[in-house]
Write a structure and sequence with these properties.
single chain, alpha+beta, Cytochrome Bc1 Complex, Chain A, domain 1, 2 domains, six-stranded mixed sheet, five-stranded mixed sheet, globular
C-alpha cells in the first residue's frame, strides 16, 4: 500500500492509500464538527445537518444524489460521531471522480430548505425511538449522558425530541457555513486510486474558506451508579472507567489489554462469565477513545438475579490482571491475534478510509500497516504493566444498569 498526502493552498487535506488489488475505491470527506460541538440546548444538530445535506443541493435534487451513485452499483452514505461528520461513498475505480463530485457538492452546496427540515426531523424522531428500543445500544448513550453530564460529550449524537424542536434552519446554516470549510475538512480515498488524479480534481474546486481552529473543552469522565427501569427480559449492565485518549502513544497496550479481557470468544471475560459460569450470553469489552479522553467499557446482558455475580467475575479478572499481569506466552498469543485483526481489516477499503480520516482530523499521524505490525511486535510485558498500573487501579468507575428489575442495590466494584 502506498500512502500520499497533499495540502492544497486553501487548506484542504487530501490523503490517499492506493492498493493495486481490487476494483473498488472508498472515498470520504471528513468534517471536524461532531455532536460534542453542538450547543447543549441544540443536541443532535450535527447529526440533523448530516441528514439535511442529502435533501438537495444547488446542483442536484435529493433523488439525484443517491441515484447517481447507486445506478453505478455503488453506495453513498454518511455518519456523525461525537468528534466529526463523514460523507462517504464506495464505487468502482472508474467511477471515483463522479463519487467525489457528488460528495463535494453535498459539503459545499446543500440547500437546507425549511420544508425539508420539518420532514427530516420526523425521520430522526423515529430514529431516536428505534435507538431507545435497542437497549444494548441505548445503554452506551445513557452512560455517556451520565458520565459527561453538563458537557457536550454527554449529548446523544441523535439528539432528543426536545432538542429537535429547538433546532432551526438558521442553526444548521451557521454550522454548515463555519464548519464545512476547507481548513476543517479532509478528503480520504483508499483502494484503486491515483493520488495525482484526486489532487487535480480538488485543485479545480474553490470551496468555502475560513481560518478557524477547533476549540473544545476537556471533560474527565465522572464516577456514578445509576439504575434505569425499562421493560426487558434481561438486565443490561455497563461498567467503565477512564483510560487513555486517542492521541496517546501507548494506545496499542490498551488494545491488547482489551483483546485479553473482553475482545472475543477466547477472552477472559467470555470464558469465565459465559463458558464457565453461564452468567451471560453477551459479554465484551470496548475501548471508547476520544481526542482528549477515553473509557475502558465492559458490557454484559444478564438475568437480573445474576448481575452481582457477573460484576464479581469482572472484579476478580481485573484484580487478577493487576496482580499477575500477562505472561510472555499470553503476550505472544495476543500479539498474533491483534496483528491478525489489523491485517484482515486492512482488506476493507471502507475501514481503512475511516481509520485514516478520523486519525488525520483528530491530529494523529498516519501509520502504515507495517508500522502498526512493528508497534504490536514491540510491546513488552513491562509496557502492558505500565498501562495497567496507570489505568486499571479503578477508583472513579461508573456503573449503569438497565432493565425491569424489582430492586436497586449498590454495586461494589472496588
Amino acid at each position: 500500500m502506498s500512502f500520499q498526502k497533499t495540502v492544497l493552498s486553501n487548506g484542504l487535506r487530501i490523503l490517499t492509500e492506493s492498493s493495486p488489488y481490487g476494483l473498488s475505491v472508498s472515498a470520504g470527506i471528513f468534517i471536524h464538527h461532531g455532536s460534542r460541538d453542538d450547543p447543549i440546548h441544540l443536541g443532535g444538530a450535527a447529526h440533523l445537518l448530516e441528514h439535511m445535506v442529502f435533501k438537495g443541493t444547488r446542483l442536484r435534487k435529493s433523488t439525484e444524489i443517491v441515484a447517481q451513485i447507486e445506478r453505478l452499483g455503488g453506495d453513498i452514505n454518511a455518519y456523525t460521531t461525537q468528534e466529526l461528520i463523514c460523507l462517504y461513498s464506495l464505487v468502482l475505480e472508474k467511477d471515483l471522480l463522479r463519487a467525489l463530485d457528488v460528495l463535494w457538492d453535498l459539503s459545499q452546496n446543500a440547500l437546507l430548505k425549511s420544508e425539508d427540515l420539518s420532514q427530516e426531523k420526523k425521520v430522526i424522531l423515529q430514529e431516536i425511538d428505534m435507538s431507545s428500543d435497542l437497549l444494548e445500544e441505548d445503554i452506551f448513550d445513557q452512560y455517556f449522558q451520565e458520565t459527561f453530564k453538563g458537557h457536550p460529550l454527554g449529548l446523544p449524537v441523535l439528539g432528543t425530541p426536545e432538542s429537535m424542536r429547538r433546532i432551526s434552519r438558521t442553526h444548521l446554516r451557521k454550522i454548515y457555513n463555519s464548519s464545512f470549510v476547507t481548513s476543517q475538512m479532509c478528503v480520504v480515498v483508499v483502494g484503486a486510486v491515483n493520488h495525482n488524479q484526486v489532487v487535480e480534481f480538488f485543485a479545480k474546486k474553490t470551496g468555502r474558506q475560513l481560518k478557524k481552529t477547533k476549540k473544545r473543552t476537556r471533560k474527565k469522565p465522572k464516577a456514578f451508579q445509576k439504575w434505569i427501569h425499562k421493560d426487558s427480559e434481561q438486565a443490561h449492565v455497563l461498567i467503565a472507567w477512564p483510560t487513555l485518549s486517542l492521541k496517546n502513544r501507548n494506545q496499542m497496550a490498551a488494545y491488547l489489554t482489551h483483546v485479553y479481557l473482553g475482545g472475543g470468544m477466547t477472552s477472559r471475560l467470555y470464558q469465565q462469565a459465559r463458558e464457565k459460569h453461564a452468567l451471560a450470553y453477551s459479554i465484551y469489552s470496548y475501548l471508547h477513545l476520544l481526542s482528549d479522553c477515553g473509557l475502558f467499557m465492559v458490557y454484559a446482558g444478564v438475568h437480573e438475579s445474576r448481575i452481582f455475580k457477573m460484576v464479581d467475575v469482572l472484579r476478580k479478572e481485573v484484580e487478577r490482571l493487576l496482580e499477575k499481569g500477562i505472561s510472555q506466552r499470553q503476550l505472544n498469543l495476543l500479539k498474533k491475534q491483534l496483528k491478525g485483526q489489523y491485517l484482515l481489516s486492512s482488506e476493507d477499503v471502507e475501514n481503512r478510509m475511516n481509520v485514516i480520516g478520523q486519525t488525520e482530523l483528530l491530529g494523529k499521524p498516519y501509520k502504515s500497516l507495517a508500522q502498526k505490525m512493528q508497534e504490536i511486535e514491540g510491546l513488552s510485558q513491562e509496557d502492558i504493566q505500565l498501562y495497567l498500573e496507570k489505568y486499571f487501579h479503578v477508583t472513579d468507575w461508573g456503573a449503569l444498569v438497565m432493565g425491569s428489575f424489582q430492586k436497586e442495590k449498590t454495586i461494589k466494584f472496588f
